[in-house]
């Protein structure tokens, strides 16, 4: 039995090492960038803007990577097809859909609800979590009924909450959040993170003991929006400022910022749950958190957990958003909302810190919040998207001990320990068995020859 247990331990340890190796590996870059969206034809968003909100109802990326534009009449559909995109004729224009969301906002606020326009189904989807009472649900349903049949009501599991409590963790007396992206105004460097993580004046640390002060919040907007700026205590972000951590000592290099498209594959990193991916399901979403209402959010089916707040959302190395909140977890899944980085940077007057090779060496110019890459994925199928190019993570781990690294499930240490223990058990079992056989033979020899 001991030998069988040792063999089992070897197999288990090998599996753990293999799993850790795969988990710590950043998915390879696809070799294409979001710049491939700029080609011979217009993007879906540009087409919708050109035709106007009275004749269109949003755009998204289809399964084949082509832009799809919802239109309300056949002449608009022909214009979309001539531009090389796919057209879908729908009943309700963007003007009607936005009027519906405005009516929902004007109704009495109900914490635990959220809504967004679903471009693909041409509906406004209203969700209510388990904290919403039957009375509030009934009143909200009545409001939706007066707006029209294109407002769809549904209950959802869990509760809509902010994810306070990553790529890299940052800690304060209010809880733990995640660092989003490093930004600069040309004079000082900052961390762009979620606004609900803490008001202006909050002090942040890089360790649980409060020995390594990271910086202080100098600007915060929540509720309404959900972003804040943490100014580095030393004034500078330091080496690797253009890299976001994704776990296991790995990182992804950030090369620009943009607004996402519905249907786009995106990636989120957080100190609690690590790297996860999913799709953008809606834009300009509204969430009624217990603390207040936040509008203009990116809605996704990517999971998140407490402590992931403020963490980065990105795709192909392009910064898209910072984690705001949602429901569910990374075991059962759920909906997660993100503050768009382009809007946050425009409001704060900052720009992303990117490597010199992506800016031509000019990092000290005037801050610009304009997207540095287009949002669509062009002819790239959504499944082909990757987080971006791999890069090592620097800083933030000086205090890590050998024990912490060995017990981190994202590392190979635990698996190697199991393998080593199993080998020792095998050798010990073989030695004990040999000793037992030798003594048994001695007893037999003595009994035979007297």
TrEMBL record:
<dbReference type="InterPro" id="IPR043504">
    <property type="entry name" value="Peptidase_S1_PA_chymotrypsin"/>
</dbReference>
<dbReference type="InterPro" id="IPR009003">
    <property type="entry name" value="Peptidase_S1_PA"/>
</dbReference>
<dbReference type="Pfam" id="PF02983">
    <property type="entry name" value="Pro_Al_protease"/>
</dbReference>
<keyword id="KW-1015">Disulfide bond</keyword>
<keyword id="KW-0378">Hydrolase</keyword>
<keyword id="KW-1133">Transmembrane helix</keyword>
<feature type="compositionally biased region" description="Low complexity">
    <location>
        <begin position="365"/>
        <end position="392"/>
    </location>
</feature>
<keyword id="KW-0645">Protease</keyword>
<feature type="domain" description="Peptidase S1">
    <location>
        <begin position="187"/>
        <end position="345"/>
    </location>
</feature>
<keyword id="KW-0812">Transmembrane</keyword>
<protein>
    <submittedName>
        <fullName>S1 family peptidase</fullName>
    </submittedName>
</protein>
<dbReference type="InterPro" id="IPR004236">
    <property type="entry name" value="Pept_S1_alpha_lytic"/>
</dbReference>
<feature type="signal peptide">
    <location>
        <begin position="1"/>
        <end position="20"/>
    </location>
</feature>
<dbReference type="InterPro" id="IPR033116">
    <property type="entry name" value="TRYPSIN_SER"/>
</dbReference>
<keyword id="KW-0720">Serine protease</keyword>
<dbReference type="InterPro" id="IPR001316">
    <property type="entry name" value="Pept_S1A_streptogrisin"/>
</dbReference>
<keyword id="KW-0732">Signal</keyword>
<keyword id="KW-0865">Zymogen</keyword>
<feature type="region of interest" description="Disordered">
    <location>
        <begin position="361"/>
        <end position="396"/>
    </location>
</feature>
<keyword id="KW-0472">Membrane</keyword>
<feature type="transmembrane region" description="Helical">
    <location>
        <begin position="412"/>
        <end position="432"/>
    </location>
</feature>
<dbReference type="InterPro" id="IPR018114">
    <property type="entry name" value="TRYPSIN_HIS"/>
</dbReference>
<dbReference type="Pfam" id="PF00089">
    <property type="entry name" value="Trypsin"/>
</dbReference>
<dbReference type="InterPro" id="IPR001254">
    <property type="entry name" value="Trypsin_dom"/>
</dbReference>
<feature type="domain" description="Peptidase S1A alpha-lytic prodomain">
    <location>
        <begin position="92"/>
        <end position="147"/>
    </location>
</feature>
<comment type="similarity">
    <text>Belongs to the peptidase S1 family.</text>
</comment>
């Amino acid at each position: 039995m001991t030998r069988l247990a040792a063999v089992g331990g070897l197999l288990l340890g090998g599996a753990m090492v293999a799993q850790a190796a795969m988990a710590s590996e950043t998915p390879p870059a696809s070799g294409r960038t979001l710049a491939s969206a700029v080609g011979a034809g217009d993007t879906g968003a540009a087409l919708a803007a050109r035709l106007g909100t009275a004749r269109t109802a949003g755009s998204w990326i289809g399964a084949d990577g082509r832009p799809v534009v919802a239109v309300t009449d056949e002449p608009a559909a022909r214009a979309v097809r001539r531009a090389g995109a796919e057209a879908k004729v729908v009943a309700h224009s963007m003007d009607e859909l936005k009027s519906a969301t405005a009516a929902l906002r004007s109704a009495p606020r109900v914490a635990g609800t959220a809504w967004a326009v679903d471009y693909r189904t041409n509906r406004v989807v209203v969700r209510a979590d388990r904290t919403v009472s039957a009375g509030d649900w009934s009143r909200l349903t009545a409001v939706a009924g007066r707006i029209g049949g294109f407002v769809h009501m549904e209950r959802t599991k869990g509760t809509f909450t902010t994810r306070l409590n990553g790529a890299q963790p940052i800690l304060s007396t209010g809880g733990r959040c995640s660092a989003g992206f490093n930004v600069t105004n040309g004079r000082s460097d900052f961390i762009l993170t979620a606004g609900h993580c803490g008001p202006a004046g909050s002090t942040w640390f890089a360790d649980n003991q409060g020995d390594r002060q990271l910086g202080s919040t100098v600007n915060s907007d929540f509720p309404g929006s959900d972003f804040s700026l943490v100014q580095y205590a030393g004034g500078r972000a330091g080496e690797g400022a253009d890299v976001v951590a994704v776990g296991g000592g790995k990182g992804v290099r950030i090369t620009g910022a943009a607004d996402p498209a519905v249907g786009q594959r995106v990636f989120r990193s957080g100190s609690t749950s690590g790297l996860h991916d999913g799709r953008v399901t809606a834009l300009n979403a509204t969430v009624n958190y217990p603390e207040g209402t936040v509008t203009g959010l990116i809605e996704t089916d990517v999971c998140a957990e407490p402590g992931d707040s403020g963490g980065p959302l990105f795709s192909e190395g392009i910064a898209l958003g910072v984690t705001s909140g949602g429901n569910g977890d990374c075991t059962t899944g759920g909906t997660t909302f993100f503050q768009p980085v382009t809007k946050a940077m425009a409001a704060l007057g900052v720009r992303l810190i990117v490597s010199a090779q992506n800016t031509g060496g000019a990092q000290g110019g005037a801050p610009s919040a304009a997207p540095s890459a287009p949002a669509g994925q062009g002819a790239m199928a959504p499944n082909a998207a990757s987080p971006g190019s791999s890069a090592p993570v620097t800083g933030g781990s000086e205090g890590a001990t050998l024990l912490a690294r060995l017990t981190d499930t994202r590392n190979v240490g635990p698996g190697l320990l199991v393998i080593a223990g199993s080998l020792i058990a095998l050798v010990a079992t073989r030695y004990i068995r040999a000793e037992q056989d030798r003594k048994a033979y001695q007893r037999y020899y003595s009994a035979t020859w007297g």
